[in-house]
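Milestone M4 deliverable, item 7.
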Amino acid sequence: MRLYITGGTGLVGSNIIRLARARGDIEVIAAQYGPEPEWVVDYALDRLDMADTAAVRASIRRYKPDVVIHCAAVLDHVWMNENRAAAWRATVDGNLAFARACAELGARYVFVSSDWVFDGQEPLVDEDSPPCPVLFYGFMKAVCERDIMGVAGLSYGIGRLAGIYGINYSNPSLLRKANDLGFDLGNYVIDRLSRGLIAEIWIGPKVNDVAHPTLASDGAEMLLRLAEHDENGIFHCWGGQAVSRLQFAYHFADTFEVDRTLIVPVPTDPAVLDRYRHIRIPFRIVTSNERTCRALGKRTYNVLDGLRDFKAQWDAFHALSPNPSPKVSASK
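Output delivered:
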C-alpha cells in the first residue's frame, strides 16, 4: 500500500508513520509544510502548502497513493479567529482539494476530524449525532466532514480524535507542552511531572473539562485501520473512556508514580481568558465509539490502559535518546 500522509511531523502523523514503517508493507509519502523531521527518515517528503489547492492536486497526481490520511491542521484558535480567510483556505479548501484529487485517482481518503464539532451540551453523542460546533475550528471541521460526503465516487473515512497525548516520533521539539483550555493537556502534565514541577490544572471557567483522552499511537492505529477499511462514514477513533481534566492529571501522577501533590487545581489563567474572550470552548463532551470499535475490529484504550502504554513508550523513548541531538536527513 502506498500511503500519503499530511502532518507527518505532528503528534498523530508521526505515530501513523511509525506504525506504517514497522509493518514493512506500506510505502510512505509525507507532505511537509513546516520543519523537516529531526531524525533520518526512509520515506519521501514533499513540501506542500495545503492552502494551494492546485499544488495539492498536483502532489496527489504525482505520487498516486492508494490512501491519503490528512492529519495536518491549524491548532492556534486565537490565530484562526483573527485570520479566518487564511484558516479557511488551509483547512476547508485544502480538505476539499484532497478529497477531489482522491476521487479522481480512486484513492481512499481519511480525514482527521475532532470532537469539537460538538458543543458539549448533550449528555452523550455518537457517530450519528448531528454536529453543533461553538467555535470556528469546530465549524471548519464540520464543514470539511460535509464537503467530503458530497464528493461523488469518493471512498472515505472521517476519523474523529480528541485530547491527544503521546510521543512525537518525528519532531519531539515540536511537541506542545503548554497549558491550554483544550483537553490536549497530557503532554503538559508529563513535562511538568517528569521535571518534578507543579502542574497547574485549570478547572474553569472556559475549559474543556471532560473529554476522551487519546493516546496518539492508539488513535494512529485506528486511523490506519480506517485507511484499510472499505466503509464510508464517520468513525470515533478516540479513547474509550471520558474523564475530567483533574482526574486525568491525577491518573498521570499515579501511573508515573509521582506525588499527587504536584497536581494543583487552579482557576483558569485570567490572561488566557482575555485572549480567548471571543472564543467559546466545549465544556463536556462524552461520547460513544462502540460502533467504530466493532467496525474496525479494535477497542480503544480506557484512561488507565492508555497511560500505562504511554509510560512504556516514554521509558523506551527516553532510554534510547535521553538527550536527542537532532539530525536532519530526508529523501526527496
